[in-house]
Amino acid sequence: MAHGKSQFAVWRCGKCNTVLKTTAYNKTNNDSITKEVKKYCKKCRSHNIAKRKDAKKSS
Ligand SMILES: [Zn+2]
Hints:
This protein is mostly beta strands. The protein has strands spanning 6-13, 19-26, 36-41, 46-55. The chain is elongated, with a radius of gyration of 12 Å. The two termini are 16 Å apart. Residues 13, 15-16, 18, 41, 43-44, 48 line the site of zinc ion.
């Protein structure tokens, strides 16, 4: 499903930088995508602010 205009985003824990989640979304809706979200980090064992970083699919 995720191909063509899809943009991949990686969510990283703001504290330990661990990747919490990878998502794909439509580029055209980029402005409406949140850039920070609170997520549970297994490494920190607490809810932290996760920051989104866009990632290009290299393959
Ligand atoms: Zn963490």
